[in-house]
């Protein structure tokens, strides 16, 4: 694994990616508006990078974009990988390790998720304060490489207090509604049953999705401060559950994307 990470890192360095300060992972239906903010972009397709998986999900473009936002060097993943696509957890999180080796100092993550908190509405955003991991594997399983981090990494504060506080402040200044809550990660790719939604809500989750937690685990393992925002794309009310349609989910994410972009662009400027 170390050799694969080093090869991917060396390839990106040889193609002009030098000392990025901020890494960004853009989720389902998110990314176009953010990418438009990147000045002097250098675009590299995932399929040309050694050992990078290929994004197989619709609306995940599979491009690594390097450039400038508010005086900071940014490296953005336009499209991420999921366990349900058949990749291993180590493959899913390889790009995060590569970002760290390239020099990334902060990791900003986004995702589209189901809304379990009936006080909120779809189309709103949730700043992830904590998470529950119900996925069946862990990217840290197996031999530990001390060069990356400790065998038993602490997870008492998986999402950076500093980054979260800054986002809350920015949201208030810009009058953008930003809920704060707990994200639960499941395997997918199917959406949940009514009984499963009830269960997830009862164990303390406010939003449910199929990503983010593996990247956060690896970021914490490597000492890389991170934050994550979920766009709540569908209401998961078990007593009034409607069939979820991907095109509707993407449409809701697209509508929320300008506000998410505004939050993250401003945060990058303040780092």
Q: Could you give a short description of this structure?
A:
The chain is 32% helix and 24% strand. A five-stranded mixed β-barrel has the order 5-8-7-6-9. The mean pLDDT is 95.
Architecture overview:
- This protein is α/β, with parallel strands linked by helices.
- It contains 7 helices and 9 strands, in the order αβαβββαββαβαβαβα.
- The chain has helices spanning 2-14, 32-36, 89-102, 161-173, 194-202, 213-221, 246-270; strands spanning 22-26, 39-45, 63-69, 72-78, 106-115, 125-133, 178-185, 207-209, 226-235.
- The chain has a 5-stranded mixed beta barrel.
- The longest helix is centred in the last third of the chain and has 25 residues, at 246-270.
- The chain is globular.
- The model has no long low-confidence stretch (mean pLDDT 95).
